[in-house]
Predict the structure.
Amino acid sequence: MSKTVLHCKDIVKTYGEAEAAVLALQGVTLDVYRGEMMMLVGPSGCGKTTFVSCISGLLDFDSGVCDILGKDITSMDTEEVVAFRGRHIGFVFQSFNLLPALTCVENVALPLTIANADKAQSYTKAKVLLDAVGLGEKYDSKPKHLSGGEQQRVAVARALVHEPDLIICDEPTSSLDHQTGQAVMQLLQKMKNETHITIIVVTHDNRIYKYGDRMAHMEDGKIRKVEQLG
Ligand SMILES: Nc1ncnc2c1ncn2[C@@H]1O[C@H](COP(=O)(O)OP(=O)(O)OP(=O)(O)O)[C@@H](O)[C@H]1O
Ligand SMILES: [Mg+2]
């Protein structure tokens, strides 16, 4: 049996209270294994972003189990979750979340900077990844001078820079043209093949389904089925 990187059972998440309450996750159960790319698909509003936010420790949930690398994230306090995420998880947000005051290199190197890594080495690593996502010319540009697709690629590079065990990408190709989208997916696939990293990709883009090993279908806050791809 492959090593389980993510084990979720019956995760329930409600936003708001009383009449305004929205039951976004209605008991999500999913296991993801080391070295696989799991595609997470489903209609808009079905709970995909909510789910990946919960498993990254960015959002508290009402009940259920979430173990990452065998650690129960619900038992950690905020500081422990932040440190755990910094070490083990890379996240590409649906809304990029780049820091506007920082250049591309500084944004990509940020996870290493936070971990107090050597600055010169961090920037060298950041530049290698920016080259890999086709942004070799933009090292010193600030996010506001980049297109949406370019910002997305910076966000992908940032998620990879600290070589996390698990990368979670929420719609990583949504602002990219076909060719750039394929290049980003090829980079993720290459990382996966070389380092056995585990990747979860939330997507609507059927042109990238082929990169997945399995696909989880979400509907109304639940995983309805998980299928093997390829
Ligand atoms: N902060 C919030 N407060 C209240 N309700 C929210 C909040 N965020 C999301 N929701 C609701 O929770 C449900 C799930 O939203 P979520 O963003 O997880 O969907 P999604 O599957 O990622 O959709 P999309 O494909 O459009 O990104 C939706 O009904 C949404 O309106
Ligand atoms: Mg979403």
